Structure formats: C-alpha cells, structure tokens
Amino acid sequence: MGSALPLGDSAPSDGLLPASAAVGAAQRDFGVYLHVPFCRVRCGYCDFNTYTATELRGASQHDYAGQAITEVQSAGRILTQSGVPARQAATVFFGGGTPTLLPADDLVRMLEAVRSTWGIAPGAEVTTEANPDSVDAAYLGRLADSGFTRVSFGMQSAVPSVLATLERTHDPERVPLVVQWAREAGLDVSLDLIYGTPGETLVDWRTSLEHAIRQAPTHVSAYSLIVEEGTKLARQIKRGELAPVDDDVQAEFYELADDLLSSAGYGWYEVSNWATDDAHRSRHNLAYWRSQDWWGVGPGAHSHIGGVRWWNVKHPSAYGDRIRAGDSPAAGRETLDAATQEVERVLLLTRIREGIPIDSLSPLRRHEVAGLIADELIDAKAALFGSIELTLRGRLLADAVVRRLLAD
C-alpha cells in the first residue's frame, strides 16, 4: 500500500455507502484488512504508509488497537445501514508496517473485534505479516491459540550485503528459527522475498531462493524491487551512490525464481506468488485480484465494496482524531462505472494462473485479446480451452502494466 493517496470524491462523514454497493454482495466474499502503520526503522526502499516512533507526532502505538477496534465496530454499523447483507469474514489480514511490533494481545483484540462484528467463516484464512526479529515462540503461539492460521515473514534476502542495502535489520540466520516456531505453533508459513536490489547478483538471488526453499514454507512471494520517488533509495540512486535497477536483470531474476521454485514443487498462481498447492495460496490476496469485497481498517487503508472504493486519512494522528470524533476516517472515495470495472477485472484476472474466461469479455475486449495473443503476451494454446493463461513473459508484462496503471 503506497503512501500517496489517490484523488477522488469527498467521502461522507457518516461513511454510508450508495445503494449500488449492496447489489450482488451476497455472491461476493468479504475480507478484512487491518493496517498497523508502525515500523522500528524505515527501510530506504519503502514507500508504504508507515511511521517510526519519531514520526508519530501526537499518535501512540499504545492507543492504536482500541482505535482500530472502534473502526471495525463502526464498519459493521455502516454496512448494515447501507443495506449490505451481513457476511462472515472469509479472510483477515494484518499488514503494515510491522503488525507484530504491537503486543500479541493487541492483535488478538483486533481479531476478536472482527469476530464479534461480522463473525469469521469456518476455515477462514487469518494472516499476519511479521519481521523475523519481531516475534518469538511465545508470541506466535499466542496468535495461533487465538485463531490466526498463517504468518508471512519478511525475509527479503539471505545475503547480508543485500539486507544492508535494503536497510533490513534482521539476521538471515534467524529465519529458520522463526519458521520452526511458527510451524510448531501450527501456523502456515509464507516467506516474502525481494529481487533486483542494487548490487545484488544472480548468485546472491539464487542463495536467497535456496535458503527460502530449505525452510519448506507453504507459500513464497517474490517481488521485484520498485524504486519509488521520494524514498531514500531513489535519492541514493539519483546521487550515483547506488546503481539503478535494471529491468532486464530483474527479468532474469524472475526467471530464476520461477525455475527454482517450480523445481522445488511450488506452483505459480499469481505474478509474484507461488504455493505448494492450491490450498496454500493466499486467499486474501486472491480476493483483491478477483475484485471481491473487503474493508480496510487503519490509517491510509483502502476498502472496496461492490464497486465503491475508498481510502482512509494517512497519518495515525489524523486517523485517531476522526475515530475519537465519531466520524468516518475515509478521506475520499470513488464509485466505479461498469466500463471501468470491466477494464480492472481484465487487468487483475490476467495476473493469476486461471486467467479470465474469454466468453466473459465484451466483443471489443475479445478483439483486444486476439491482439495480445498475436503479441505473445499470452499462451495462444489457452484460447483452445476458453481462457487466458499467462506465459512467463506475459506475467512480467502484466505486472508492469498493472503497476503503471495503478500509479497513474
């Protein structure tokens, strides 16, 4: 979640949604995202809406769980008053920032608020992100005992020099330990990796991939490093202190990741994600790609209900002021028309393995698909089976197109 908020219409102070948001809601999954905007240090590449202790300016980590719980409770009332049918949460995701900088009891309280407001569906996926140096065995056990099912560790790299460039604080040798603790607690484990760091070599990247595979997580994410304007990393590159990120080299890194992970038994299912089997895909992230419904809690968090999208005020202090005043923390919103929803559906679904059924496209979109096949962005054989499935080259291009559009 980038730190810059998009432009949009003003959001009403009561947070109520238009009637269109309720149409078809019973046929869509509902998820909850809880943003915890705190980090011990700010990594030089990071453009997420996060804050270190010196950047809080009037906000307090101690107060945060209570504020998030208030938004969850308010969200339940808003959806009911807007005529959106009640649905249990199919997925819950704690992201950041570093959610595990908060005490485990705070995360448990926030999860309990979701449970008491909407209920949590049987077999729901409940995930928290964590840094390897932000948890211990007791912390992970507390989460597992309270209904968490999954933890996503920000490993990023196994090479100390790469971690230093990224300004990550953990020791790569701690990764096997936290994975073991999580597994002993009964949690599924995902490892997040970043490739294309200035100075990183293919040998470095192979080392990181092999180190991750040895831990036998059920899920691996591998994201290309994006140099965001305004970050420390962007300034270092502009001053010539670090080499610029090379797109062709990043493509080689991606191909290596796909080769090694596939050989180790991981199946690719989304541009940047691999899992041991379909049951261990990230269902929460898939809900984003499939344009399902979710409520985003916290500063800068984004929500989407039935084609209505909105985003909260950015700073934790402004967020806290809104919550204490009993107002919606939404800073702006937009209601997508049918044409925009179709374009987004095509862009998002072509990121995942199953692609998109060709017969679900309008005649114009089908003509455009024919052009994509001619340009080898997709596997022409897929047309025989009635859906678009991306080749390796197509995955990279789809990722680049979607990132560019979302940034515009």
From TrEMBL:
<comment type="function">
    <text>Probably acts as a heme chaperone, transferring heme to an unknown acceptor. Binds one molecule of heme per monomer, possibly covalently. Binds 1 [4Fe-4S] cluster. The cluster is coordinated with 3 cysteines and an exchangeable S-adenosyl-L-methionine.</text>
</comment>
<keyword id="KW-0479">Metal-binding</keyword>
<dbReference type="InterPro" id="IPR013785">
    <property type="entry name" value="Aldolase_TIM"/>
</dbReference>
<dbReference type="InterPro" id="IPR006638">
    <property type="entry name" value="Elp3/MiaA/NifB-like_rSAM"/>
</dbReference>
<dbReference type="InterPro" id="IPR034505">
    <property type="entry name" value="Coproporphyrinogen-III_oxidase"/>
</dbReference>
<keyword id="KW-0963">Cytoplasm</keyword>
<dbReference type="InterPro" id="IPR004559">
    <property type="entry name" value="HemW-like"/>
</dbReference>
<keyword id="KW-0408">Iron</keyword>
<feature type="domain" description="Radical SAM core">
    <location>
        <begin position="24"/>
        <end position="270"/>
    </location>
</feature>
<keyword id="KW-0949">S-adenosyl-L-methionine</keyword>
<keyword id="KW-0349">Heme</keyword>
<keyword id="KW-0411">Iron-sulfur</keyword>
<comment type="similarity">
    <text>Belongs to the anaerobic coproporphyrinogen-III oxidase family. HemW subfamily.</text>
</comment>
<keyword id="KW-0143">Chaperone</keyword>
<dbReference type="InterPro" id="IPR007197">
    <property type="entry name" value="rSAM"/>
</dbReference>
<dbReference type="InterPro" id="IPR058240">
    <property type="entry name" value="rSAM_sf"/>
</dbReference>
<protein>
    <recommendedName>
        <fullName>Heme chaperone HemW</fullName>
    </recommendedName>
</protein>
<keyword id="KW-0004">4Fe-4S</keyword>
<dbReference type="Pfam" id="PF04055">
    <property type="entry name" value="Radical_SAM"/>
</dbReference>
